[in-house]
Design brief:
Layout lengths: L2 E5 L10 H10 L4 E4 L8 H9 L6 E12 L2 E8 L6 H12 L1 H14 L6 H8 L6 H10 L30 H10 L3 E4 L13 H9 L4 E5 L5 H14 L2 E4 L19 H10 L6 E2 L8
Parallel strand pairs: 1-2, 2-3, 5-6, 6-7
Antiparallel strand pairs: 3-4, 3-8, 4-5
């Protein structure tokens, strides 16, 4: 089984629509794909409809990538198979989404102050119906010739945490995030915890504290982790009793990673589905849910 548990669509900052993402996942030979847009479940309905129309055995895992903040660091937590109607979690996600527009406008204002002729209209056009975020602003910088790639915009010179054009947004406390996802019947996995190229990372001690609070796993096999980091995190997960996942963090054409570039072991995926009570994997027309 080929299992990719971290992807994005146009519902947040990917370039594939949810339907396109599902079709592309099937074409890539995946058996399981998780749709984990930033702080939203808005793409799930379209993805499910596309799955019903596919003659494949692809299984869809519904989820989201939640934004949280710790000691001034903006970090992410993957939440799987939770009940999207759980009121407290839904309200927190809405607060995060609602803060994305004023935050983007603040960053655009900072860029303009640095002499970059970017506009809100340009960024809004790039974001379309998705939840506007830094990748959309980064793409505008690429279009303007300020940086060569989206990744090059995520530096201290531009949009990285603490960068010249960075602005804070409403984010969850990680311990609250774990509690809320658990209350909604979901499973939590710390996304790319060793991605030092994105900025500061948390210590192993913090990960241990999150594990004690109920964190289920950590994303180890990821494009932003070096082989040495993966080895270290795998050992840490073993010490703490955490699940180890691997994922592409696919964003369509906005990033260089491809679907299935990194995958999750079927036994780990099975454990995630066993722990979840808020929702269930959705099978395609060609088979029953992969488990």
């Amino acid at each position: 089984m080929r299992i990719d548990l971290h992807t994005h669509s146009t519902a947040s900052d990917g370039t594939d629509t949810p339907a396109e993402l599902v079709r592309n996942a099937a074409a890539a030979g995946l058996d399981v794909v998780a749709l984990t847009d930033h702080d939203t479940t808005r793409g799930h309905a379209e993805a499910k409809q596309a799955l019903r129309e596919l003659p494949s055995g692809l299984t869809l895992v519904t989820g989201a990538e939640l934004s949280f903040s710790l000691d001034g660091m903006g970090l992410h937590m993957l939440a799987y198979l939770f009940d999207p109607e759980e009121p407290e979690l839904a309200r927190e996600c809405e607060l995060v989404r609602d803060d994305r527009v004023p935050r983007a406008k603040e960053m655009i204002g900072k860029l303009q102050g640095l002499g970059v002729p970017v506009t809100w209209e340009q960024v809004a056009r790039i974001a379309g119906d998705g939840s506007v975020g830094r990748p959309h602003i980064a793409e505008a910088l690429v279009d303007l010739g300020v940086v060569p790639t989206v990744s090059d915009a995520f530096t201290a010179e531009w949009l990285a945490d603490g960068g010249r054009a960075f602005a804070d947004k409403h984010e969850l406390d990680p311990f609250d995030a774990i509690r809320l996802v658990k209350a909604a019947g979901g499973v939590t996995v710390f996304a790319h915890p060793g991605a030092i190229k994105r900025g500061k990372i948390v210590s192993d001690t913090v990960i241990a504290e999150l594990a004690a609070a109920g964190l289920d796993g950590i994303e180890v096999d990821h494009m932003d982790h070096t082989p040495e980091t993966r080895t270290r995190l795998r050992g840490l997960a073993a010490d703490l009793g955490l699940l180890v996942t691997g994922s592409s963090d696919y964003h369509g054409s906005r990033k260089t990673c491809v679907l299935g570039e990194f995958t999750t072991d079927p036994e780990i995926y099975g454990e995630i589905t066993r722990r979840a009570t808020g929702a269930f994997p959705v099978p395609g027309a060609g088979g029953s849910p992969a488990a």
